[in-house]
Each structure stands twice: as structure tokens, then as C-alpha cells.
Design goal:
Blueprint: H1 10-32, H2 38-44, H3 49-77, H4 79-97, H5 103-131, H6 137-166, H7 168-189, H8 204-213, H9 217-246, H10 251-279, H11 282-299, H12 306-333, H13 340-369, H14 371-393
Length: 405
């Protein structure tokens, strides 16, 4: 596998990774400022609760559908070009929110934002794999995903405070301004990785090789276990507030549960990414993480006090950090350099589809059998994908141990 052309010395790697992390943080911070505001804004325009759910689902649906083809496109036309395209689309979406006057306007804009994040997110993740030495993939993804989750966590807090002080449209305007700055940063600071001269970017040969790559058993295993773990995430984000309210928690306490899950998820990715590099046992670390995710979601079933909910949220955040720092590195290690965009695009697609499946599919289940069985079922379904992951990795990575600095 041709790697020398896309590797840099350690100093260049550190600088490029820092830039990637800052650009990614800026993008997700700007776009996520809308999250606490749009539901209230839509309600003020007359949208019903179910329509507000449709608005949010439109974003995940479009991002899930387009993440994989966007990754393929980045393999063909280049990472920087597609990252810029995604940043431009996100800027347009945030700007259009200022002028939205109806449920249909907001739904259409959220579809557009889904297109933008599908173009930007997988491309930047592929870029990280391009600039990272094989011995540093785990810690690189740890830092990258920490930057992403910090943006997702801090953006809504800033958006809520800004909206409370200056009104909803000020949030959209600020998000658009920050998105415009991010476009400049991508163009100015991110240097496109050099092309791999060993393959053609177009033609029948590329399509034939890409089709064969889709039979890559370890890659499919990583995709599917990502889907299963994010079913758990979809159930948590959608139904945990209702369960916690039934158990006597107030809104402030529920917010703290969400905050602890997000913080533990983000902060844990750096040390567990480094551990993945040091131990060289990525598939085992990923397996531990996804198994703990099933146990953690089941832990909410027996939670009765605020402390119990905090403990379960801490465990869930850490388990997802353990799993996904290794899964991201595994995908990079099991995929040819020329098809990294396709592989990571598929990874992002399965994230979004898993979140959708957890949020949409478990509503009727919980209405029928209650929260306890619904949460336990989410953990049990994840175990099915864990079993497939174990099978997909059998016979591979006989010598997982890699030297690290």
C-alpha cells in the first residue's frame, strides 16, 4: 500500500492535525449553534411537535444517504475541493435559516445542511488518515473526534445564550459568519495531500477496485458494528429525557446527564486513542467498547436516582470513546489509501442511519413494552452486530502489534 507519498515527518503531522482539529471544531461549533434554537423557532412559526421531529430527521436522513457517495467523490476529485464544497453548503444553510418562514422552509434547509455535513465530515476524517503515520492513527482520531465533539457540545451552549440575549435570528447570523470564516480557514491552511500516483482516479479500473473493496469483510464489520452502537445512541438521545422524567429527575438534572455523557465521550477519546496505538490491539479495544455500550444503555433501566443516571451516562460516554477511536483507526488500516474516502464515508453513513434507527424505530417499541424493555432491546440488538464484528475480524490482524513512539 502506497503510504510514503502521503506521510509527513512528526512535526508536520502535528501541525496538520492541529489545523484539521481546529477547522473541524469551528465547523461543528458554527453549525450546531442552531440546535437549541430551531425547535423553538419552528414552534413559533406554527410547526407541531411531530413536524419539528421531521425537520431534525431530514438532516440525519440526507447526511446518512450522502456520506458514502461523498466519500467516494473525495477519492476522485480530492479532499480539499470537497471539504470546501461542504463548508460552502453549510454556510448557505445557516444563512438561509435567517429567512425561513415556514415548516417547509426549515425542512428544506435542514436537507441542505445534511448535504453539507455529508460532504465536509467524511472528507475531513479521511484527511486525518492521509496525514497520520500508521503508528499514530488511534491518537490522531482521538484528537480529531474530541475536537468534533467539543464543537458539538459548545455550539449549542453558545447558541442558546446568544438566542436568549439577542433573539433566534442572531444565532443563525452568527453561525453563518463563523461558517464563512471556516471556509477561509479551509482554503488558507489545509494543504491537499499529494495524489497517489499508483492508481487512476477515474475509469473502469477505479470502479472495479472500489466494488471489490466493498466485499472487504473487516470493513463491513466495522460499518455494521458502528450502526449497532449508534442505535444505542439514538435511543439515549431521544428517549432518555422521558425515562428520567418518569423517574423523578427535573429538566436541569436531565441536562447534566446529557452533559456528562458528552464530556466523558469527548475527553476519553484522547487517552483511549493513544492507548490504541500503544497496545496495538485495536479490534480488541473496539470489541470492549461496543460490549460496554450495551451494558451501559441497560444500566439506565435500573437507575432510580440522579447519581445512578450520572453513573450510567459516564459509562456510556466512555464506552463509545473506547469503541470509536479504535474503529476509525481499523477502517483506515483495512482500506487502501485510494479508497479511504469511500470507507470513511460509509462509516459516517452508518453513524447517521444508526441514530435514525434508534430514534424512529424504538418509539413504537417503547410505547408497547415500556422504557425498560426498549432500552434493553437496544443493547441486545447491538450484540447481534457485535457478533458479526467478531466474525468479520476472525483470521485478520494476526500481528496487530505495531510499534509506537
Amino acid at each position: 500500500m502506497a503510504q510514503d507519498d502521503c506521510r509527513t515527518d512528526h512535526r508536520s503531522f502535528t501541525m496538520l492535525l492541529t489545523i484539521c482539529c481546529l477547522v473541524t471544531f469551528g465547523c461543528y461549533f458554527a453549525v450546531s449553534m442552531r440546535l437549541p434554537v430551531v425547535p423553538l423557532y419552528a414552534s413559533g412559526l406554527g410547526a407541531s411537535t411531530s413536524q419539528i421531529g421531521v425537520i431534525n430527521a431530514a438532516f440525519y436522513l440526507m447526511a446518512g444517504i450522502l456520506a458514502l457517495p461523498s466519500g467516494m467523490l473525495s477519492d476522485l476529485i480530492g479532499r480539499k475541493r470537497l471539504a470546501l464544497t461542504g463548508a460552502l453548503i453549510l454556510f448557505a444553510g445557516m444563512l438561509l435559516l435567517i429567512f425561513a418562514q415556514s415548516f417547509f422552509h426549515l425542512t428544506g434547509i435542514y436537507l441542505l445542511l445534511g448535504v453539507g455535513i455529508a460532504a465536509f465530515g467524511p472528507t475531513m476524517m479521511s484527511w486525518v488518515s492521509e496525514i497520520s503515520p500508521a503508528t499514530h492513527l488511534g491518537r490522531a482520531y482521538g484528537w480529531y473526534t474530541t475536537a468534533l465533539f467539543c464543537g458539538l457540545g459548545m455550539g449549542p451552549a453558545a447558541g442558546g445564550a446568544l438566542g436568549d440575549a439577542f433573539g433566534y435570528r442572531s444565532v443563525f447570523l452568527a453561525g453563518a459568519a463563523l461558517s464563512a470564516f471556516n471556509i477561509w480557514a479551509v482554503q488558507r491552511f489545509l494543504t491537499a495531500p499529494g495524489p497517489d500516483a499508483g492508481y487512476e482516479k477515474t475509469g473502469d479500473m477505479w470502479r472495479s477496485n472500489a466494488a471489490r473493496m466493498l466485499t472487504n469483510r473487516p470493513l463491513i464489520g466495522c460499518w455494521l458494528v458502528t450502526f449497532g452502537a449508534n442505535i444505542i445512541g439514538g435511543v439515549f438521545f431521544t428517549y432518555l429525557p422521558l425515562l428520567a422524567r418518569d423517574r423523578g429527575l427535573d429538566v436541569g438534572q436531565i441536562g447534566m446527564v446529557f452533559l456528562l455523557q458528552s464530556v466523558s465521550n469527548a475527553v476519553s477519546r484522547i487517552p483511549f486513542g493513544a492507548l490504541s496505538d500503544r497496545l496495538g490491539r485495536r479490534k480488541h479495544q473496539a470489541l470492549v467498547g461496543v460490549l460496554l455500550a450495551s451494558l451501559s444503555i441497560a444500566g439506565f433501566v435500573s437507575a432510580r436516582t440522579f447519581f445512578h443516571f450520572l453513573l450510567a451516562a459516564l459509562c456510556l460516554g466512555m464506552s463509545l470513546a473506547i469503541a470509536f477511536t479504535s474503529i476509525g483507526a481499523l477502517i483506515a488500516e483495512t482500506t487502501e489509501h485510494r479508497f479511504r474516502g469511500l470507507a470513511i464515508g460509509g462509516y459516517n453513513s452508518f453513524i447517521y442511519f444508526g441514530l435514525m434507527a434508534g430514534s424512529i424505530g424504538f418509539g413504537p417499541v417503547i410505547e408497547s413494552v415500556g422504557f425498560a424493555y426498549g432500552f434493553m432491546l437496544a443493547g441486545a440488538i447491538n450484540l447481534f452486530f457485535v457478533a458479526f464484528f467478531i466474525w468479520s475480524m476472525s483470521g485478520t490482524f494476526q500481528n496487530e502489534r505495531t510499534n509506537s513512539d
